Fold each of these.
Amino acid sequence: MIPAVVSVNVVQDVKVSGAPFGMAPGGPGGGDDEGGGDDNGPSPGPGAGSPGGNAPSMPGDPFDQLRRYFGQGGQRDYKQHGLGSGVIVSPDGYILTNNHVVGNAEEIHVTLMDKREFTAKVIGKDAKTDLGLIKIDTKDPLPVATLGESNSTDVGDWVIAIGNPFNVGMTVTAGIVSAKGRILGGDYDDFIQTDASINPGNSGGPLINTRGEVIGINTAIYSRTGANNGIGFAIPIDMARNVMDQLKAHGRVVRGWLGVEIQEVTADLAQSFGLPKPEGALVASADKEGPASKAGIERGDIVLSFNGHPVNDEHELPALVAQTPINQKVPVEVMRNGKRMTVQVTVGERKEPQVASAKSEEPGGNWGMQVGDITPEIAQQFHLETTKGVVIRRVAPDSPAAEAALQPGDVVLEVNHDKVGTVADFIAKAKDAQSKKKSALLLVQRQGATLYTVIKPAEARG
């Protein structure tokens, strides 16, 4: 098994404006920094850390902290290095690892157990599950890991973690499965918790059962120091296998979509809805253009099963839907007004929002805002009624966007009287305005009202 584990070293060119290291406003986190994110990506909360390198965010981008530098001043270039692990899943050089290890790397270098080194390329990445698939080219067949079944793993089973912590070399640690189904903040979280020692550099390495089968991909640690405290998390291999197959085939993950916003069924809610115990997922709202609404599912329905699989709580439904083929009709059992009923829903495709920052390549050309396309999910998140324009997802402190009083949730309809339909439209118009180093007039919609605001170039402020 050990020969199938590799070390992954990454390099990224980072442009940093103003603030010196260690003084970035805010801190690392999941959120929306990779489109997933922002989609973000799951985050275990305070004290969590990624075992992928020096940056303490999980699962996220090891370079996220550097991208949060929005201070004024000259621009400097840095080579940021990151460290992780990976596991060879095919003899022709496919390697499974974490997205937060390789997702934004300029260079990826893989070192095998026999000391051979290769340059790898990214085949696909998925921020929502924090998985990445890379490939190296070699004439000789490579040793391959055996993938097991994480669903058959029980709490208390002995497991082994393999990786390259702190770049000291390939290291094996042992422990047990401490828990299953851990939720750390993401829509598709289903982590295996283990007390096998996992440290920075272990990200992307395998968690192995006593039969030598991979049952998880080590991803995160819960720690106030950044080092192991006996609480580590691994992505179940059953989920990782599905994502890996899609990345290999398409370079991205296609997920099913119902078009509902759901919430937990508490004991009080269960009693109110006539359920004998808290179970299922309560529909808080249903997109009128979504598959669920078109099939007759309404706000206040409790989803009890999906395509024959029981829905024990609200965390299970998104994963079940995501893994369902697009356009497949499936039975969905709901409780409405104390009565059980089954409706047939044709699953749609979840559209991942395109996300970009309003930046030009010139120093000082950063408006300090991140925008995204308005998908049904984004419309629900920001309670938007419009599908026109692009929504502001993040505004950096002390930036031109902040000075213009722009806020997350604002919808940009026009830039200099030119209509904005997509992120690509916005970026093109923003770059044009920035290249002229002049103020730009934005038409913004906020809570149903429209207003104009002027955004000034960074060098013209103050």
Amino acid sequence: MIRLIDILSALFGLLLGAPLLVLLWIICWLDTRAPLFRQERVGRNQQPFVLIKFRTMRAETVSIATHLADPHAITPLGRWLRQTKLDELPQLWNVLRGEMSLVGPRPCLFNQEELIAERTARGVFNARPGITGLAQVQGIDMSTPELLAKIDAEMLQRLNISQYFHYITITFLGKGTGDRVREKV
């Protein structure tokens, strides 16, 4: 049932959001000359897939986990895209392709070995990664691998249609700061 909702929502979002996606693509191209960010991530059953987002950092920024990124690499437009979560819209394509779900654990990088081990031990990779989930709305990011994997597993064990729509709604309303770039002190 959730997969059907994912497909219909992603299709509806891509078709209805096409003018916005095109406008954001143009604005991002003017900002960085490389509007889309593509990165190989760990998917369901630890299979690799290429995640697509609007670029929020300068094009020459090193590809690392978000919590390790230099906050000065984020462009002013990128900061706004992150705050509004509009940078995530291209991931609807990943959802439509079956690589992701709207709700699930955020996909990690293959070099995040501690998080991969924690998620493997808890069966988190049995599910599709998601655009949002319990960890994101609670502000838990990948800097705490054990806690993140624990929350991901708890979410997946309890996930039902009601919670699925709840996570989407509160994400849409701007709650949560998971996967944020941390200010350097």
Amino acid sequence: MQRCLALAQKGIGLVSHNPMVGCVIAYEGEIIGEGFHQEYGEAHAEVNAINSVTDKSLLNKSTLYVNLEPCAHFGKTPPCANLIIENKIPKVVLGCVDSFSEVFGKGIEKMENAGIEVVIGVLEEESRALNKRFFTFHEKKRPYIILKWAESKDGFIAPNNQNEPFWMTSDESKKLVHKWRAEEDAILVGRITAQKDNPSLTVREAEGANPTRIVIDKDLKLSTDLNLFDSDAKTIIFNTLKTKEIDNNYFIKINVNNLIKSILQELHKQNIQSIIIEGGATTLQSFIDAELWDEAKIFTTNKILTKGVKSPTIKGEIISEDKIGGDKLEILCNG
């Protein structure tokens, strides 16, 4: 199962809106086939693993290991549970059950009805953690929310009266942030950050696809000459005035009285499973105050600002601490 999880991880940033899945087939304790879900819409892990087995006559005497319940429905590809049954694989070991309503126990039921022995819950916690985005999306009906910011040694996120883009962290940290962007579906900033920093919010210093860019601009005050409105990536503009599509920019009118929840509901409709909130302080704090965040990635630099915009106030469990190019990186989880 550990090998399944390692294989599955290779699909990060490539398979959304599907989960990351790895599969291993063993005969008499030896691995005879393995595979993972490599790209959204392409073959699932179980298909790739079965296809990799050279001697198919061994399948009816083998055990298939997979970190997530095999699908039982026709989606972009045929059901994996059917393929396992067709190949007469006698035993399947699962990391965890798939809580997506189209699957949720149906793959297990189908295999057990065909006489297959199904073992559930091997490295279950690790299997669910790997697909935290997928499970949050289907169980909480919202994207997995990652907060990200950098702050000075004395607790400021930006200087006062900032009139041009301001970057506090090291080049190594900047590259890591671009890698993170490639791993998530979307990235969000508020109007003031968009206006002052003029960010592109694209992946330039790492490999991977650009996330969907999102900006909150209630009264549509932002200039369309900003980098956010170029053609490099899709941009969603949440506002209170109009719903309209112009080129690669999607204006979506939302309810300002329950802003954060309205945004998350709309993102769920848009099938966005994960989002990075990149600031500024007011936007970040609004998600924290609403208790609508899952993970926070906070860089603390060696810079001293003395005065400026105070960093968000957050409480959470520190799950890791690292040094990245001279910056301290703390990752917190919410509860």
Amino acid sequence: MGKGKVEEIHALIHATDAQTVIFDDELSPGQLRNLEERFGVKVIDRTALILDIFALHARSGEGKAQVELAQLNYLLPRLRGWGEAMSRLGGGIGTRGPGETKIEVDRQHIRRRIAKLRGDIKDLERTRDVKRGLRERSGMPRVALAGYTNAGKSTLLNTLTGAASLVADQPFATLDPITRRLRLPRHRVVTLSDTVGFVRKLPHDLVEAFKSTLEEVIRADLILHVADASAHDLAEQIDAVREVLGEIGAAEIPELLLLNKWDRVDEMERARLTRRHPEAVPVSGLTGEGADLVLERLEDALPRFEEVSLLVPHDRPEIVPWLYREEEVLSSEAGEHGTAVRARVTERGLARVEEFRVRSTGAGASRA
């Protein structure tokens, strides 16, 4: 941004009596300080605004810890520009602190707090892993709702499962993943998880802080990509979500695109969207229109798994790590003749391990 644009904004601030200037990109500490000095009003960037919104919506202990960790990681390099700003965290990152004193003491305090929050999140993550492990051992396929913020994921979850998730017409209303069981038309049962909404240029600190939450998406067997059919920038939102999925390592997971809020779209627009996204399922989480079709398509799109017992000989050491990496290992135990493994494998994976399969007989287990 050149000097002329700065002067243009400065004039606009005084003409409109604006109290805050928000930049739709991340600013360096020096840029923030210089712009605040020139404008004479509070300046915040895209990351600070998103963190503010997350802070407003964090409800669980884990959600609050994750947001605070992201806020502190953002604040640490900006202390010199904003001074002793610790007191403002309770009210959001966009408010003023008491002054620029004891900066080094503040830095040390923030670093200690960051270390404690990481420890707390790690403990909460272990609890989440135990619960997730119980779900995985149940053998139920895992489906994750993902999509741009405010696309209607929570409303859709409530419609499909009868859950009572918080629904609000605002960005990032859901920060804590909610998992419910869902019975499909042919009686197959899956777990369906609602997750935090994505956004273009999602701040890196936020992705890092919410890593354990985003694992609900990373470890899913199928992603229901919920898009707002009434959004004027639908294509850009879809691309932004797929970009974030790629960043968190979920790009290879099968995806079913849902065009939600179909009740808000007129007939002409419906025809256009159907031509542009023929693979998508139109649905309204609010009215329930298209919900039955979603369940049918979901069941068809799920990968087929088979639970198998294997005996992997010691002279094939590459098989067990591959199973842990590519399939789902339920249990493993080393023995005299090899490693006994119980796993859920895809049809593709079954071809690789078929020779190690054992079947139960009246007398016990034997090589198939």
